[in-house]
Amino acid sequence: MARATTEERAESTAPADRARDSLLINISDVVKDYVTDAGTFRALDRVSLQVAPGEFIAVVGKSGSGKSTLLNMITAIDRPTAGDVWVAGTNLSRLPERQTASWRGTTIGVVFQFFQLLPTLTVLENVMLPMDFAHRGSTRARRDRALALLAEVDMVDQANKLPLSTSGGQQQRAAIARALANDPPILVADEPTGNLDTATATAVFQLFERLAAANKTVLMVTHDAELASRTHRTVHMVDGRIVDGPPRHAGAVATAGALAAAGADSTPAAPSAHPTAAHPSHATQRLSENLRDG
Ligand code: ADP
User: Which of 41, 55, 67, 269 has a CA that sits 20 to 30 A from residue 234's CA?
Assistant: First the structure.
C-alpha cells in the first residue's frame, strides 16, 4: 500500500494541475548539468517545451546540442538539475526511482537508431518483451497482441526469425511494434532513420505519421531536414537551448492525415547522412542501457 500512496503523490490532482495535464509533456526551465573531471558542463540550459496529445515533433540540432539529454529527461532516464518535467500527468521529479521503469514501460515507447532488439530472441519475442515486463495479460494474449502489432508494421512473416536475419528496415519496424506493445501515449525516437537508406527511412517515417494520426504523440530526433519539415513542429536545439528555427513555409505545416491524403508516400526524402551515425552519444547509450536493464 505504501507504493499506491507514493504513486498518488506523484500524480496531480488540483484543478490547475489538471489543466496543465492536458499537455502530455510540459517541461519548464529545465537545466541539466554534468559534472566531469574538466568541470561542470551544462547540457540543457533553461529548456521549456509543451507538447499536446497527438503532436508529431521533430527535434533537430547539431551533435552535442542536447537532443538526447532532452529525451532522457522526458523518458525519466535522467533527472534534471533544476526545473520541472511533467509527462502524462506525472511529475517526474517526484516519481520514486523504483517506480520509474514500470512508469516508462507503460507511458513511453522508445525507438533507437540501432534498433536495440535482443539478438537471441525472435522478432515476436522481442515485441512481447515489454508486455512480459509489465505482466500484461496471459502469454497467449501477449502473443496475439504482438502478432497484431507486427501485422500493423507489415512484419508478421518475419515474426519467428531472429532480428539479425532481417533487414535494417525490418528491424526498425519490429522495434516500433515493440515500442507500441504496452500502448503508450508517447513514442520517443532517437534518430530512428539515421541508419536506414532513404527509401526505408521514408517508409519508417510514414509509420510514425500514421501513429501520430492515430493520436500517438511522437518526438523524433533527426538530422534529416526533409523529414523534419514533414512533422507538425520542429524544435531546434543549439548549445543546450531551444531556439527559434527558420519559419516554415505554409505547405510544410500539415497534419499527418493531410500528408497521407496528399499522397506523401511518394515524396522522396533527402539523404539522412549525419556525423554521429556510427557513434551514439553518451546520453543515447545511457537510454538504451536503462531500457535493457529496466
Ligand atoms: P546530442 O544528442 O544533441 O548529440 P547530447 O544530449 O548527447 O547531445 O549531449 C549534449 C552534451 O552533453 C554533449 O556535449 C555531451 O558530450 C554532454 N554529455 C551528455 N551526456 C554526458 C555525460 N553523462 N557526462 C558528461 N557530459 C555528457
Answer: 41
Binned at pLDDT 50, 70 and 90, residue 287 comes out as very low
CATH numbers and ranges of domains, the chain: 2-122+162-293 (3.40.50.300)
Where is average pLDDT lowest: 10-14, 92-96, 146-150, 277-281? 277-281
Q: Ligand 1 centroid vs 222 CA: distance in angstroms?
A: 16
Q: From the CB of 59, is ligand 1 less than 6 Å away?
A: no
pTM equals 0.79
The C-alpha atoms of residue 246 and residue 228 are separated, in whole angstroms, by 12
Mean pLDDT computed over 221-240: 95
Q: Count CA atoms within 13 Å of residue 249 on its CB side.
A: 2
Looking from the CA of residue 61, the nearest atom of ligand 1 is 3
Within 8 A by CB and 6+ apart from 193, the residues are 172, 200, 201, 204, 205, 222, 224, 227, 272
**Strand pairing of 186-190 and 39-51?**
unpaired
What is the rounded distance in angstroms from the CA atom of residue 149 to the CA atom of residue 184?
13
State in Å: Cα 281 to ligand 1 middle.
7
pLDDT, residue 286, reads 53
Task: Tell me how far the alpha carbon of residue 32 lies from the centroid of ligand 1, in angstroms.
Answer: 10
Q: In Å, what is the CA distance from 107 to each residue of 110, 183, 263?
A: 10, 8, 31
Furthest C-alpha separation in the chain: 54
> Looking at the chain, which runs of residues are DSSP E strands?
25-36, 39-51, 56-61, 82-87, 90-91, 108-112, 186-190, 217-221, 233-238, 241-243
Sign of CA dihedral 178, 191, 201, 61: positive
